[in-house]
Amino acid sequence: MIPPESWLQHSYRCGLLNNPLVGVGGQSITILDPGRANPWDGPDFLGATLEIDGLRYRGDVEIHLSPRDWFRHGHHHDQRYGQVVAHLVWQDEPIPEALQGRFVHVYLREQLALPLERWIAYYHSLESRPVSRGGPVERLPSLAELARLAEERFLRRAGTLAEYARDSDWESACGVALAEALGYRRNSAAMATLLRRCPAALLQKNLPPGYRSPRRYWLFWALKAGLLPVSLPGGGGRLSAWPPEILKEVHLVRQAAGEPLLPATAWRFAGGRPFNAPPWRLAALAQIYYDLSGSGLFAPLREAAARRASPGVLLQAWAAVLQRPLSTGLQEAIAAIYGYRRVPGRTLGQVRLRQFLINGLLPLLHGWAARRRQWGFQIYLEAIYEQFPSAEEAGLLQRWLAQARPAALAEGVRKSGFLQQGLLEYLAGQNRPGPGALPLFGPVKQKEKRIA
């Protein structure tokens, strides 16, 4: 597995790499101060202090997956990279001749502070929401620590989504973020995988314009997800109970969809609310993408933010794009196929909407603005993030904060989506794998000493 760059950046900042590191040329590199994360264009970390073979250097640090990314990303033409003192890369590939001797290089894959499998599992847990409904938090970190953890979570999410957009496009990245939010705890990974492998653009390519409807969008994705009985071995016994018009439509769409991309075992039905079941989550996705087939998903959401309205007005504008009534034909098909007696009336409830906005859309837009050097827009998005209202279920928050101290801070967390993001990062950090000496809030900075 090749991880996102954002995982490497977080590991560097939070002490999940060996220290000292060993450079490609055998140098001993001690991280005394990782520097400050750079949310703008330019090196990933500014003003770091590194001790390399006994000498101290102060400068910038750049992190890539491959040494060749230095040229792929155009850094060789960018004067902002003139103060880089260390280039950390994941892939064990030859260092380009033009970069040799310019600064120290480090291969990171074999220099993680914990085994690779546990490192990957840890970042999967950070990227998702806590699976456990958990017990109370005995004592919260300080307000400053929660705010810093919220910022850390935001920048990591922005990096992950922007990296995915660089390999595909912003529309696809937005779809993956929405699918992940719709999947919630139990099915977020399966939903995101489905949208990565079968984005809306592929669906639209295979369904002719005159043949599209919310129901057919849903049938296409449900078939690719392995969620329809006709895609399961021996699953055709129930087909006789389906209305003839739905059965005919299933077989027609199946010709366009082809074979499933995911096994049925990828999905979890047990223990969740009926409206959170995978068929209904996919139905929300199908309805939204059908309604927005002319513009796509990302453009109207970005344009709403570009007006730079107040937080309340912006949330209403985003809700108008995403909260849509489910079509009757779509509701009837899912109810007939799965036997549901109740059907949801719209695509997204208030909590799920806000969770997508704060975990997906805001960091994605931040990455988009950084790529286009729209600094003012980035600052506006950061302000929206800091003022975001509660985005968690009241019952879950109550369990987490039942005995939290101090009480005033717990009450602040109940009302602030921003502080709740810091709490989610804190809870994930409580289960951080690896040596007990790993600090929860990052490496301790040491004072720089003069070199004689």
Explained architecture:
This protein is α/β, with parallel strands linked by helices and 452 residues long. It has two domains: 5-114, no CATH class; 153-385, no CATH class. Helix content is 49%, strand content 8%. It contains 17 helices and seven strands. The protein has helices spanning 5-13, 69-72, 116-127, 143-167, 170-197, 200-206, 214-224, 244-257, 278-291, 298-306, 311-322, 328-338, 350-371, 375-386, 394-401, 407-415, 417-430; strands spanning 21-22, 28-33, 36-37, 45-52, 55-64, 84-89, 104-107. Strands 1, 2, 3, 4, 5, 6 and 7 form a seven-stranded mixed beta sheet that branches. A hairpin with a 2-residue loop joins strand 4 (45-52) and strand 5 (55-64). Helix 1 (5-13) runs antiparallel to helix 4 (143-167), helix 4 crosses helix 5 (170-197) and helix 4 packs across helix 17. The radius of gyration is 24 Å and the shape is globular. Mean pLDDT is 86; it is low at 231-237 and 433-452.
What keyword list fits this structure?
452 residues, disordered C terminus, seven-stranded mixed β-sheet, alpha/beta, single chain
Brief overview, please?
The chain has 17 helices and seven strands.
